[in-house]
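Researcher: Here's the sequence for the chain we discussed earlier.
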Amino acid sequence: MAEVVGAGRRRGGGVTPRSVWVVMVAAVVLTAAGLATAASLRPRSASTEAAPPTSASQAATSANVALQCGSGPCQTVAGQNVGADRVEVLIGGSTGRIRVSGPGGTNIFEATTIESGAKLASDSLQCVEGVVSVCLVHGRITGGKQDGGMAGEVLVRRSGSWARGQVPYYASAPYLALRNVDDGVVDVVAAQASCAQGGGDCQRFYAQVFSVVRPAGAAATPSCTAVVTRLTALPGWPTVAPDPAKLRKCPN
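Model: Thanks. This is the structure I predict for it:
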């Protein structure tokens, strides 16, 4: 066996050419570089991969964004669950919103009642769940010709979708609420003052029934109770419950 006695020199074998050493060193360098490159191209493991944002996290972020009422954030004053949906009344300054959130997403409606001068508070929301679900947003009017009365609007859910009712509702006396009178779908019941000017001096009242949902082509039916001499004499007071058999034509 040859004995190594120095760099590039073998006993009995002569001198190893310098070019051979250069090739050997270059091969080692290239091999190390290739291994480093392969390591850098290897896919990262799941534990180190940055997770993309999920739809749930995106939804949570959207839900946390403050809803604006006018120039500032809205404040929730009333809320009620209707099945899997959540209905909320929010106000800020002279602006109001109605927010409906649930499995089908979130819908925002303008609260037009507040524009009528009604004040919305913790008792301003009433919802009744059914095949046709209805929510009434209502408030007491302060000031103006309708002072002391009430204004309201409804949202109606059919087949899982919410929509705004087409007309606002007004009560010249301080009572406006939902009530199923005779057809399985809730109606809006309003207490009306039967006086030319209404107001606090009026001592004649009746309850008027508004059909929120009426079949296409159905004829209008008598929708008012008899006139009574005090508000508390309305049938069922304090939860007015008109007898459908006693409804009649409304006073002029």
